[in-house]
Amino acid sequence: MNSAITLAAQARGYAKAARELEDRKESERARELYLKAAKLYNDASMLSKDDMDKNTQRDLAEHLFARAQALKGSNAVSSGGTLEGNRSSGNNDESSITKDDVFLKEIPDIGFPDIGGLEDVKEEIRKAIIYPFTHKELYQMYGQKAGEGILLYGPPGCGKTMMAKAAAKECGAEFISVKTSTIVSKWVGASEKNIKQIFDIARQGKRSIIFFDEIDSIATRRSESEDYAKRVVNELLAQMDGVDTASDDLLVLAATNEPWAIDPALRRPGRFSKLVFVPEPDLEARKAILHIHLKKRPIDDDLDISYLSEITDSYSGADLAAICKEAADIPLGEALRGGNPRKIKMQDFETVLQKRKPSIVSWYIEAKTAVQKTGEEEVFSELVQK
Ligand SMILES: Nc1ncnc2c1ncn2[C@@H]1O[C@H](COP(=O)(O)OP(=O)(O)OP(=O)(O)O)[C@@H](O)[C@H]1O
Ligand SMILES: [Mg+2]
User: Fold this and answer.
1) What is the pLDDT at residue 307?
2) Probe ligand 1: pick from 162, 253, 364, max atoms within 8 Å of CB?
3) How far is ligand 2, taken at its centre, from the CA of residue 213, in Å?
4) In this model, does residue 115 exceed pLDDT 90?
5) What residues form DSSP beta bridges with 178?
6) Percent of the chain with pLDDT over 90
7) Which of 51, 66, 290, 333 sits at a 20 to 30 Å CA gap from 5?
8) Cα dist. 318→40, 97, 322 in Å?
9) What region holds the AAA+ ATPase domain (predicted)?
10) Region for residue 274 given its phi and psi (left: phi exceeds 0; alpha: psi -120 to 50; beta: otherwise)
């Protein structure tokens, strides 16, 4: 019986052949091979044990299927799926893309005070993002090049996305958050064009930060990726090289918890040349995070937040937020069942902690192996020390 790996390898072969046929304008034959490749990826995704492989294979199947549809010369919007492509309301047409599918433009409501701890990271962000925007002339006067791209990386749930939003808020920039997962699964054919369009839109704004969250889903090492994924990375590189930090009020930020999986070319000068590690919260940070998440909840005098911070070593910010919510659910549930409303007690936290274990330990184990495999221990030294 075929394994997921074999099927995926066959799919890759068909996809490559289809692409070559398409380039030679042999559309009908290309379409057949795209469909074969899509089916093989789909079959592979059903057999894959690894969630990430599964998702990638499913996305690739979707992509290749849409590619075949586009070649059919039908009315499918897929091949022209530009940002302006319209989706009629209520229509579940997977192949059309709207602006909202791809990115969100907002002024975030999260600021530095909402982020517990991580003082060093905040200071790095101030120097790398906020001061270059707010003290542009000073930077120019001293010949300091500001505004290189920044890649935030670290364990899941430790505040990378929050930090990016807060950075935009702190410097009053428009925050253009690009939904990278949508790019992978739906952005058909027009992906390069649309990346360019995002940068063009950002340049029109007053002061903008483009944020590629979970960038690993679109910027994998080109040696290991499909042709269409390579084109996305190439366009991203070209756009980043084209950002003129002197005249563009534009910064590019990205976040990932798999920095080792990203194409190293993206880390060259002028691109994401600054890497900022966002670690799990230390004792003080855990205390601050617990305070933030308990601020608006009724807590009993017996609740010792310092002690709680001590016993939650290795828990992420997201774990701590969840613990606070789950502890509050206990007296809430009792009150809903007719009991007298009471404050949240230490005992509630102890009950919750028995069930919820720290989520980042396994991430460090995986990170260490992955970084050692790529031989980039010096670049990601924080990940191999543990
Ligand atoms: N330092 C922090 N202070 C306050 N809350 C935090 C902090 N870190 C994480 N949280 C809580 O955890 C949630 C998840 O944080 P966030 O989305 O920023 O993590 P992330 O590092 O981007 O994770 P992922 O890698 O999974 O995308 C936040 O919405 C918040 O409730
Ligand atoms: Mg995130």
Assistant:
1) 96
2) 162
3) 6
4) yes
5) 103, 212
6) 35
7) 66
8) 37, 31, 6
9) 146-282
10) beta
Token pair for residue 339?
């009991």
CA of 245 to the centre of ligand 1 (A): 29
Could you tell me the distance, in angstroms and rounded to a whole number, from the CA of residue 278 to the centre of ligand 1? 10
At the second CATH level, the architecture of 283-355 is Orthogonal Bundle (1.10)
Mind listing the pLDDT tens digit for each residue in 342-369? 999 999 999 999 999 898 999 999 999 9
Pairwise CA distance, residues 197 & 202, whole Å: 8
- Per domain, the residue ranges of the chain are 4-79, 99-277, 283-355
* Ligand 1 atom nearest residue 214's Cα: 27
pLDDT-based confidence at residue 154 (cuts at 50, 70, 90): very high
Asked whether the beta carbons of 219 and 178 are under 8 A apart, the reply is no
Report the nearest atom of ligand 1 relative to the CA of 318.
12
Question: 220 C-alpha vs ligand 2 centroid, how far in Å?
Answer: 17
Evaluate if residue 234 carries a pLDDT over 80.
yes
User: Cβ contacts of residue 216 below 8 Å, gap of 6+?
Assistant: 256, 257, 258, 259, 261, 262
Q: Which helix (H) or strand (E) holds 103?
A: strand 103-106
The residue-averaged pLDDT of 107-122 equals: 91
| Domain 4-79 annotated CATH 1.20.58 | yes
pLDDT score of 6: 86
Residue of minimum CA distance from atom 18 in ligand 1: 159
Q: Return the CATH superfamily for domain 99-277.
A: P-loop containing nucleotide triphosphate hydrolases (3.40.50.300)
What whole-number percentage of the chain has pLDDT above 70? Answer: 85
Q: Whose CA is nearest to atom 24 of ligand 1?
A: 156
Around ligand 1, the residues with Cβ closer than 6 Å are: 115-118, 156-162, 255, 257, 281, 289, 292, 317-318, 321
